[in-house]
Every structure is written in structure tokens, then in C-alpha cells.
Amino acid sequence: MDALSHNAHQCITEKSGNLSQIDKSLGILGSATAGEPKNLSTLRLKLQGEEKNLSGELATCKVLAIASADLAQKIHQKQEALHAAMLLQRDHNLWQQALALQSVPVSTWVGEREFWLMQNGQSIFAQRSLQISFGVGVVVFALSLLLRAPLARKIHRQHPPPVAKNKFYHYVPLLAGISTSAAITALTNTLSPLIMLLLVTWGGYAFTAMFLALALSPTGVLSQHFDWPPQTLRSTLRRLRSIATLAAFGLAWLVMAPNDPLSLAHQDFFYSVYHLTLLGAVFWLIWRAGAHGPFHIYPLLRALTLLALTVTAAFTILGYRNLSNYLFFGLLMSLLAFGIGLFFSWELTDFWSRPPQPSSHWQRFLRRRLKLKNDQPLPWIAWLSTITHSFVWLGIAAFILYAWGLTHAGFTLLWKYFITGFAIGNFHIQPFRWAIAILLLILLFNINTVIQQYLANHSRIIGHMESGARHSVLSIVRYTGFIIAILIALSTAGVALHNFAIIAGALSVGIGFGLQNIVNNFVSGLILLLERPIRVGDWIQVGTTQGYVQKMSIRYTLILTFDRTEVFVPNSELIAGQVTNWMYTNSVLRLMIPFNIAHDADISLVKEILVAEGQKHPDVLQDDPRGIPPTALLLDVNENALQFYLRVYLDDCNKSFNVQTDLRASVVESLLRHNVVLAHQQQDVHIMPKQILPMEGKLAQPTGGR
């Protein structure tokens, strides 16, 4: 049906294209007119005949497409109905399964005993080759146990080895002994079903417990993310080891089951008991581990998982074997996949967030290639971490889908949609092209960053420019690179760039309603970057805000004030308003420092003191063409004081406040040493004797004084 539907849709596409070409040709020929050449009439008739035939073929293809779609839907519905009926089919319950074992004939039990305990007509334990293999395995186990500690110290070159590694080496002797026994029994052809069951069970236990101990040690991965006490870690390790042993036993049993003399109906009881035992172990693990962080913050998820395990156990007891197997495999594989995903995710997080280590080979290689220092972070770490985490969880998701019954055909269909895409309305989406576009966008963004870093640190092109000009060039390069990267990524994703005319029209409507300020700031930012009336590092004043330009972006300018406050000023205010730039042409600054002196002071002495103190300061320009030497000016005489000004020029306006503080302090001290009095505001009060007001009904007596 899939092939029929595919061919029908291909036929529709092909015939529709041919009809479109014929319609265009007929449109070019036009309607028949009297006296036209005969060849035109013949061609028109021929095209009309082809159009009629193609219309009939197109109708047939559409009928086939509709019929195949309807039939495929019916097949799918029938398949779902059969699957549901199979899952809900009820067999014997657990008690009936146990009673069914009584009807097993004695010959079957004899065959069962011979299947597990006999090989080649004799007991497997009486075979000398099997005894030798197990003896050699015990010897290898003992030797590995004795040599474990020295080898661990030699490998790690320290005493004792780390706790996590010590836990890892704890199971190496057991795994070595089991592997040796399995190899010898396989070579001597004494690998009977029972021996295989035992070896696989213990080997799976040793192999799984080795890595569980590594993860659950006090310095392992789990202890770094879970604040669990050592006792909880040890109890969790024991439960996980028991679950691993049961899983290895079940796997070995499934491998040996096809040759078992017991029929499948008689084996149901043993499968049910095994399911209940493993479900109980997993239930107990989740019940105890869920009471600790971070699982206790997800009580609903924990409750749903425990409920699903309970329901699966209930279906097992009631005899819904197919549904029980489906839920059993899906739940346990999902929990296993989720745990493995968390483990690898934490390992990747620790790996990528690990501080720079010169001893690491890959870090040393990258630093040498990128010419980075040891204290500089490696670039692209965040992107690499995101990509690796995405691949891990995509693999986990695929495994979970497989555990819940997604077949090879289902994965093929998903892969087909991922590659060829699907349509939403008139828009065709290809996830594969979008994934490539995203990766290309990440790569281009990082290349743009590397180019900026190279221009900022190593390039001779802008190295001779001052800091403001370099910032403008780097900003233009950054935004140009972003635009080019986005356009390339959209083109790779299959987005037609000519459709941006529609987007531009929509944006124009948006600008008319509420985006005027954003566009105004954007255009103002471009003007500031190109004309550069303000540069990074300039000391400017915008309204009541005064400070240094710390950053200039396409939308705003960041000003750092003198009290260390960061003010974000929209670029439109810098273009439309009045801006004072103290450092536009140079950083020279003139200071006019006022001093109020009493009226009876010696004017010449005061001027000498002011000039002398100005000449003493090291930051004041003396004989420099960019300014005038320190000068004392008497610019005002009022009723309170003689107002003198000390005029000085500084080569760096950043020192303005410090220089003013130093000069005011030194001038005041020098004036006081020369007995020059600083003036204060004063006011004269005159009392008129003839205009004394009465107080409490009486007239105050004139004093005759003033």
C-alpha cells in the first residue's frame, strides 16, 4: 500500500506538471481564428487531445491515491484493533499457572533435570574439564585479588588510589575469574545451559556492579549531584546490584528458554514470578531513592512510576501476559535508558565544565592550535556541550521508543520524514535541512567570533587605530557576520529569500504600529558606528547623565557613571539630543576653579599663590601648545568677596576630579599660611527707630541706637 500510494502521488505530480505545460502552450496559441495556418490548427488539436488524455490519467491517479489512502487507513485501524485485542487477551492467572505445573508429566521433569544438570550422559559437575575450568577460574580470581592493590598503585602512581578507582578495582578479580572459567568451558565444549546461566548471571553482576560502584562512590558522579549520605549510597548500590543480577539472570534464561523441555504454557508461572520479583526490586528502589533529593521535588513523577509498576504487577498476577510483557519491557527499559542518559549527561557536564588542565592532551592540542594561554577558556565549549547532550538524549529517546514497540518500519518512516520533510499548509519543512542549517549557523557564528578576536588581538589592519575606531570596525564586522550567517542558514534550510519581501511588508506594518522606537534606535546605532561622534572610552554627558562610554551596540549605548552606575541610553537620544563629548578631538580639559577672597586681601599676593600652586601640580600642562599655563583671574567683585579663578589645562580629562581636589586643598593651605582670609557670605541688618512695631499692646521704648 505504501508503494501504491507513493506511485499514485508521483503520477499526480507528473501529470499535473504535463497539464500545466500544455495549458501554457494552448494559451500561447490562443483561440482558433479564421484563415490561420493549418499547422497551427493541427498543433492545437494535438495539444487538446493530449490534454484530454492527461486529464483522464490524472483522474485515475487521484482515484488510486484516494483509494490507497482509504485502504491504508483501514489496514492501520485493523492492525490497531488486532494489537489491542492481543494485549488485552487474558490467560491463566498466577494461581492457575502454578496449578498447571501439577499436570506436567514426570518425563518432562526428567527431561528438565537432564537439560540443566546432564551433558553427554553424565552430570555436568562430574566432568573433569568443567572442574578444571572452575579451578583455574578460582586461581585467577585469587591471583587477581592479591595483585589488585599493587597494580592499582602502579597504574595511578599514588598510595592509595582514589576511592572511586578503588571501588572499580574491587570487582576486577571476580570478573577475571568468571571470564577465565567461561573461556575454558567454551574451549572444552562443557558450556552447558546451567553453566552458561551461572556464568552470564555472575558476569553481568560483576560487570554492572563495577560501574555502579564507580558511579555511587563518595567521589563518583552521583555524589557530586546528589547530597546523599554514605549509608544511602551504599544501600542504593546494594539494590542496584540485586536488580542487575536479576536482569542478567533473565537475559541468560531468555537465551536458554527455546531449548527448555517445558512448554511455553508451563513456563508462564516462572516468567510471572520473575516479573514480580524484578518489579518488586525496582519498586523498592524508586520508593527509597525517591525520598531523597533531587527526586523528592518530583513527587507526581515518582507516584506515576510507582503506580505503573503496581499496575504491571497486577496484570501479571491476573494473567494478562501480553499486556504485562509489554508494560514490563517498556517500563524497565525506559527507566534504564533514563538512568543511563542522566549518567552520561552528568559526565558530559563535568567534562565540558572542567577547568583548564594543561595535562590534558586534547586541551593542550586545542590551545596550541588556537594560540591560547592556560588561563584562557576554550572557545565553543558551550556549543560542543549542547551538541553532545543533544545526541545523548536523542539516542535515549530512540531507545525508549523502541522499548515501547516502535518497529524498524516506524524508525524508517521517521527517518523518511526527517530527510524528505513534510508539509504544513503551503510550507514544506525538512528537519534534516533545518538541522544542517542550525549546525551551519553555529559554525558561522563561532567563525565570526574568531575573526573578531583575531582582528582585535593580532591584526595589523586595525592595530594602529585608536580604541573607539577599533570598536566601530569590530561592531560592523560582528553585525555583518551575523546577517550573512543568518541568510546562509535560512537558504540552507530551504527558505526562499525572495519571500523576505513579504516579511518586509509585515515589518513595515509593525513599524507603523509599534516598532518605531526599535527601528529608530537601530538606524541611530548604525549612524553612530559609521560617523563615530561618540566612541568607546569617551567621557560624555547626555542630559543629566555623565560618564564614560563603556559599550556601543546597535540599539543602545552603555555609559558608566562616576558612582559606578551603568546607564543604558537609547541610540536615538544620542542622535536627536544634545551630547557633550569631552574627548572628541583630544582629551585636554580646561578647569576653572573658583575661590572667594575677602575684600581687604592683597590681590597680587593671591594671584601669585594661585599660579604657584597650579605650577606645582604634575598633571597640569605648563609649556604645552595644547593649553595655556596656569593663570589666576579676578573675574568678579561682589558685596561678599573678590572672586578669583585658577585656570589650568589637563592632558587627560579622566583626572579632572583628582586634580580639582588637589588644587583646592593646596591653594587653601597656602592662603591660610599667608594670612589671606577666605570670604564668607554676609548680610547687613539696619534697625529704624521711628518704625518700631507695638508688642502686646504696648509701645517699645526707642533705644536711639542702631
Automatic annotation (TrEMBL):
Membrane-protein topology: Multi-pass membrane protein
InterPro entries: LSM_dom_sf, MscS-like_channel, MscS_beta-dom_sf, MscS_channel_2nd, MscS_channel_C_sf, MscS_channel_TM-2
Regions crossing the membrane: 129-147, 168-188, 194-219, 240-257, 269-287, 299-320, 326-346, 378-404, 434-455, 476-496, 502-530
SUPFAM superfamilies in UniProt: Mechanosensitive channel protein MscS (YggB), C-terminal domain, Mechanosensitive channel protein MscS (YggB), transmembrane region, Sm-like ribonucleoproteins
Chief location category: membrane
Keyword tags: Cell membrane, Membrane, Transmembrane, Transmembrane helix
Top-level taxonomic group: Bacteria
Residue ranges constituting the Mechanosensitive ion channel MscS domain according to the UniProt record: 517-582
Protein name in the entry: Mechanosensitive ion channel
Species annotation: Acidithiobacillus ferriphilus
